[in-house]
Specification:
This protein is mainly beta. Helix content is 0%, strand content 45%.
Length: 126
């Protein structure tokens, strides 16, 4: 069973950076496309970045492109999200997600992902 555990959230000043990490339960994860989403209070879950199973395809949401970087470490079974130039509107709970099947494209719909972590909260203070 795939399990995902996010970490790295906290209180960050506007303009600062944060690096979120998603620890997966093991080798099975290495075949799965992964993505990061976030959800602010009263808003829908929002796609931020996705990476294919083998890491060859990476996509970012337009609203965060240039400020975020997704990466994965196959030896450690982790996927990370680096976020820079943080703004107050980046305040949200951040989730990593895994999709069992890799269709060769990055899926941006939250409903298409099979596994989710519990989330890590990022609060940006202005």
């Amino acid at each position: 069973q795939v399990q995902l555990v996010e970490s790295g959230g906290g209180l960050v000043q506007a303009g600062g950076s944060v690096r979120l990490s998603c620890q997966t339960s093991g080798r099975t994860f290495n075949n799965y496309p992964m993505a990061w989403f976030r959800q602010a209070p009263g808003k829908e879950r929002e796609f931020l970045a996705g990476i294919s199973g083998r890491g060859f395809i990476i996509e970012y949401a337009d609203r965060v492109k240039g400020r975020v970087t997704i990466s994965r470490d196959y030896a450690k079974y982790t996927v990370a999200l680096q976020m820079n130039s943080l703004k107050s509107e980046d305040t949200a709970v951040y989730y990593c997600a895994a999709k069992v099947r890799d269709y060769g494209v990055i899926i941006r719909s939250a409903g298409s992902y099979d596994y989710w972590g519990q989330g890590t909260k990022v609060t940006v203070s202005s």
